[in-house]
Specification:
Distance between the termini: 46 Å
Structural class: mainly alpha
Number of domains: 1
Oligomer: single chain
Number of strands: 0
Shape: elongated
Radius of gyration: 17 Å
Number of helices: 4
């Protein structure tokens, strides 16, 4: 009985982590878009991420696929690499430099 309960808890926790990774990618891209200014990231990419964000309320943890999230993370990293080529290090740093509490 307890073995099954613990396995389910581990599985649920792993699924929540995968979902969190997905949400993190989406929120990061949308946040970067707002910090850079509308139109700096291709509008079709932003629209795709906005649709993903809106779908979160309908998404159950067990509906999130590890492979799909890995692909989204890879695409997010590629986007950041491309943006990094367009802006110098100081500009990129200033986008996320916020006072520490």
């Amino acid at each position: 009985m307890f073995g099954t309960l613990f396995k389910r808890g581990k599985r649920d926790s792993a699924l929540r982590r995968v979902r969190w990774r997905l949400e993190s990618c989406v929120e990061t891209v949308l946040d970067l878009n707002s910090r850079l200014g509308e139109g700096k990231i291709r509008p079709d990419i932003i629209e795709h991420f906005r649709k993903l964000q809106k779908s979160f309320i309908l998404l159950e943890d067990d509906m999130v696929d590890e492979r799909e999230v890995s692909r989204i993370e890879e695409a997010t990293n590629q986007l950041f690499e491309e943006i990094g080529k367009l802006y110098d290090r100081q500009t990129m740093k200033s986008l996320y430099d916020v006072p520490k509490h």
